[in-house]
Design goal:
There is one protein chain. The chain is an alpha/beta fold. The protein has two domains: about 130 residues, Alpha-Beta Complex (Aspartate Aminotransferase, domain 1), CATH 3.90.1150; about 250 residues, 3-Layer(aba) Sandwich (Aspartate Aminotransferase, domain 2). It is about 35% helix and about 15% strand. The chain contains twelve helices and 16 strands. A seven-stranded mixed sheet has the order 4-12-11-10-7-5-6, with helices on both faces. α3 crosses α9. The radius of gyration is 22 Å and the shape is globular. The chain binds pyridoxal-5'-phosphate. The site of pyridoxal-5'-phosphate has 15 residues, from α4. Belongs to the class-III pyridoxal-phosphate-dependent aminotransferase family. BioA subfamily. Keywords: Aminotransferase, Biotin biosynthesis, Cytoplasm, Pyridoxal phosphate, S-adenosyl-L-methionine, Transferase. Its main location: cytoplasm.
């Protein structure tokens, strides 16, 4: 076996999700602007996925840069233990005001995974604080993705996820099928009967299961889960890390189902893609068990960079942009253009499904294509897209113009077409 230090590139980086011994060398990014990534060799790529869906206003938006510069000069960061500051206070209030439901408190952290863990901890500790030691399990769903840390791996899809290797190591939660039809609704009812008094909460990504396969479900599924949580007397946690901030066509996905969660998790596009920040919001039902005269009823969590002031300043500027530049209208236009732009793929024998929701366009292939080859062909056409498994998806910046979006959909269609030609050759 080759040791990593034998590698010719001299790099000390350990890259994510990559078998580094055989992977093609990564591209080197030099700078960004708008929807573009400029490589060190001078090539310029149109970014089709906005850096894992974070850069919703495009890269280097001047309003966000300016807000960060001002904050940087005043106070980049101060610990949130025993201290608070305006950017965090204001952001917490503004998030409570726009997230559906009567959200009362916001707990900040630094990544989506940690924010999901905090949500799980809030739900489970709520019951512990009330003296109920049995409610320690989370009901989550097949096809779901909630992060890569150990607690979140345990609530991802157990088979299809990236984490099946760790099966024996992970705590056991309850994984069900999303209640999409009569049969799966009946199975969910069974599970709730069987595990009812061991469950602390139901955890779901609303409307779109993102990294687990870009699968969509109907708003009815969420209404069903809200009703199930109410009936069981447990919490509904919505992981809006992928769906939040306009991605599905509404500011938050749950708005389309007319439901509110007890706990909501936000990250990814929260800062417009410039700074790692995440938020876990809880309503009064959840917080009620934490306010008491007992110190051990406090939420025992506190990330070092919690409520990072620079990140909060970026997030506040980002929220302003949603209003000032009417992002949701842009999402509607992107949606229509994705629909027409990707429709040529529908005819291909290699394509199992083409689907669009908000600013998400998905081409699902059958069978499994050679991913490295697809990536290389897309880069040759000047676009940055990161297909996974049998999915090619677009989640561009919400500011993307017609021309750049046409370039993206055109490249995806062309590459799918080339694959077809390779197959028959
Ligand atoms: C990306 C993602 C996470 C994890 O966020 P990280 O910041 O990568 O830890 C959790 N849930 C969903 C739905 C996500 O898309």
């Amino acid at each position: 076996m080759m040791s990593p230090s034998d590698q010719a590139d001299g790099s000390r980086l350990w890259l994510p999700y990559t078998q580094m011994q055989i992977a093609a060398p990564p591209l080197r990014a030099a700078r960004t602007y708008g929807t573009r990534i400029v490589l060190e060799d001078g090539r310029e790529l149109v970014d089709g996925i906005a850096s894992w869906w974070t850069a919703c206003h495009g890269y280097n938006h001047p309003a966000i840069m300016e807000a960060m510069r001002e904050q940087l000069a005043r106070m980049p960061h101060v610990m949130l233990g025993g201290l608070v500051h305006d950017p965090a206070e204001t952001l917490a209030s503004r998030l409570c005001a726009i997230v559906p439901g009567a959200m009362e408190r916001v707990f900040f952290s630094d990544s989506g995974s940690v924010a999901v863990e905090v949500a799980m901890k809030m739900a489970i500790q709520h019951w512990l604080n009330r003296g109920d030691r049995r409610r320690s399990k989370i009901l989550a769903f097949r096809g779901g993705y909630h992060g890569d840390t150990f607690a979140t791996m345990a609530v991802c899809d157990p088979e299809e996820g990236m984490h099946s290797l760790f099966q024996g190591v992970l705590p056991q939660h309850v994984i069900a099928d999303l209640p999409c039809d009569d049969a799966s609704q009946a199975r969910l009812a069974d599970i709730l009967n069987r595990y009812g008094d061991e469950l602390a909460a139901i955890l779901v990504e609303p409307l779109v299961q993102g990294a687990g396969g870009m699968r969509f479900h109907a708003p009815d599924v969420l209404r069903c889960l809200r009703a199930a949580a109410d009936q069981a007397g447990i919490f509904l946690i919505l992981d809006e890390v992928f769906t939040g901030f306009g991605r599905t066509g509404s500011m938050f996905a749950c708005e389309q189902a007319g439901i509110a969660a007890d706990i909501v998790v936000l990250s990814k596009a929260l800062t417009g893609g410039v700074s790692p920040l995440a938020a876990t919001l809880a309503n009064g039902k959840v917080t009620a068990a934490f306010w008491s005269d007992r110190p051990d009823h406090a939420l025992m969590h506190g990330p070092t960079y919690m409520g990072h002031a620079l990140g909060c300043a970026a997030a506040l500027a980002s929220l302003d942009l949603f209003v000032q530049e009417d992002r949701l209208a842009q999402v509607a236009a992107i949606s229509a253009q994705l629909e027409t732009g990707l429709s040529p793929c529908r005819g291909s024998r290699l394509v199992r499904d083409v689907r669009v929701m908000g600013a998400i366009g998905v081409v699902e292939l059958d069978p499994m294509p050679p991913l490295a080859d697809i990536k290389a062909r897309l880069v040759e056409r000047g676009v940055w897209v990161r297909p996974f498994r049998n999915i090619i998806y677009l989640t561009p910046a919400l500011i993307i113009g017609k021309g750049d979006l046409a370039h993206l959909t055109g490249a995806v269609c062309a590459v799918v077409d080339e694959l077809k030609a390779c197959k028959t050759a």
